[in-house]
Amino acid sequence: xxxxxxxxxxxxxxxxxxxxxxxxxxxxxxxxxxxxxxxxxxxxxxxxxxxxxxxxxxxxxxxxxxxxxxxxxxxxxxxxxxxxxxxxxxxxxxxxxxxxxxxxxxxxxxxxxxxxxxxxxxxxxxxxxxxxxxxxxxxxxxxxxxxxxxxxxxxxxxxxxxxxxxxxxxxxxxxxxxxxxxxxxxxxxxxxxxxxxxxxxxxxxxxxxxxxxxxxxxxxxxxxxxxxxxxxxxxxxxxxxxxxxxxxxxxxxxxxxxxxxxxxxxxxxxxxxxxxxxxxxxxxxxxxxxxxxxxxxxxxxxxxxxxxxxxxxxxxxxxxxxxxxxxxxxxxxxxxxxxxxxxxxxxxxxxxxxxxxxxxxxxxxxxxxxxxxxxxxxxxxxxxxxxxxxxxxxxxxxxxxxxxxxxxxxxxxxxxxxxxxxxxxxxxxxxxxxxxxxxxxxxxxxxxxxxxxxxxxxxxxxxxxxxxxxxxxxxxxxxxxxxxx
Length: 485
Hints:
Helix 18 runs antiparallel to helix 19. The chain has one domain. Helices cover about 65% and strands about 0% of the residues. The chain has a two-stranded antiparallel sheet with strand order 1-4. The chain has a two-stranded antiparallel sheet with strand order 2-3. The radius of gyration is 23 Å and the shape is globular. The protein has 21 helices and 4 strands. By secondary structure, the chain is mostly helical.
């Protein structure tokens, strides 16, 4: 595939590469400078640094089928390490300014869907298998072919649905939305219909502060909001001594915001290699469908992000192709393998890289800067541990709102489009499963359009995907039939 480069201005064309680093990363050729790349890399890190806090919050919220739970500090350390290594690797191999970290949405699927059926080590092994499949699909060219076969409306709906699901998790974790057992409606606002606890009030304050910063397009607004909320939480804990919610109904949900020791520590990398490929207790159909769901989310999220970032950087041609496309897709698959191996969840390209691109980054040198900062963050995990769930929940809601904005690109006036899109978006939070939402969207898309006289417009690959999800939804009875045969 021919490589495309942005048009350089006359001044850039007259300049010659200055040194080996310039030549390797094609800095001058792309109309950039070392200074711009360094600034862009720093800005990207500041914008993405919240993931070192948010990923542990998501992955340590739930227990697996054995009742085991991941430890916050360990997840924070491997999150920073994997993001650093993969960001640098991508920058050196693909020479593009697209940073990597644990994928939002994918980590939620692992935490809230997968570990309800498998153990944490098994879940991370499935993430690795998903990554190997992505590498194979990318290397053979099948990845782009499949991407092109899925209707854009469903691609957007999946992103929007994950956004709504993440926001719902944030509302629940903050205590803003609570379950009303044996009552109607099944959920309600706060405590008996009121916001009655300090942690939930701080969630609201953090949400509004972060929303204002993001609305004003302040770089690193999400991180600044998290830091601000955490500082307020530390002050509140020092004044009222709220303690844990297990001891005090008005206390903090998971983590008490108090720094009891040094903010620096050697990273605990015990989770590296903590995977298990022994799926003997899980049905084969369940394993296949979990990998399929992971593959699908990883697949389309990354392709859409690559397309958007390459256009923003002026590196894409009219067809959306950009320099070293195949190597970029292969490395993205390796990110999933690395994320599973380190138990940080699948690592993928982050749309927040656009902040560094806006600062002038055009090459992989910016990635090297961002990656080195992530590696340094490994030694600051005690700071991340003091962030209370209620403050992190505000970031989840903001990220969900960002993802929801893409719905504007869908034409909801056509009901054969509107219903599958609606089902994709709503089934995710209502059934607390990303996979269920994706399946509902695909099955309804194929059936409604086929019976509306548009069967010829449906790509043959969609029929296979929809059939697979029908089996997924009926996997319980199917597994019972197989076991009884």
